[in-house]
Here is the input.
Amino acid sequence: MAERVSYVELFEKLYRFYGPQGWWPAASDFQMLISAILVQRTNWKNVELALENLGEDITAVDLMQMEEAELAEKIRPSGFYRMKAKKIINWLHWFQQYEFNIENVRQLGQAALRNELLEIHGVGEETADAMMLYAFDKPGFIADNYARRLFICIGYDIPKTYHAFKTQVEAAFPDDLEMYQEFHALIVQHGKQYCKKEPLCKGCPLISYCRVGSQKIDDLRMQ
Here is the structure.
């Protein structure tokens, strides 16, 4: 039977194994914000291609002046590019209220900012939380599929909804920006390497905590 692990112990175990991740992998805070939309329903390699097409020095003003069709073509590698172009434009109209100034947005309270982001058509909870965590300096847990899969394997009773899962973790985790930034990055890294849809348990640093991995070991011992 796997031993139970707290959220903080889980973070520490992942951090010792993988080290600091330096996330979000974008050249600037503005690129991070755009990529939070681009990464919806695709992988990061495709986002990198779209960002490369836009250019490292792209600004909010540049995008606002761009025709929607041109923007869509530039971000084509990210998939669902016409839809994402509309989402980016919707988000830019919101950002314009703050003079395209990230520091102005950071002055908002956490709850108020999250509510405003969620009112933007095309920005869901995961996208909003990523923007808040990595660009607007608001600590919080991103309750994405990587996290859900990992926490279920470890044996936590995970709520069905995104918000309930997020709230459960935040109630038991330090309100620390850098820890939350690392925690999400580490969970994603672990999900890509070991805790996949078909788990790769051999060599996993969390094998002693994992119900799935421990069961596999017990089954092998009984053979």
About this structure: Residues 29-134 form a domain with the Endonuclease III; domain 1 fold (CATH 1.10.340.30). Residues 177-193 form the longest helix (17 residues).
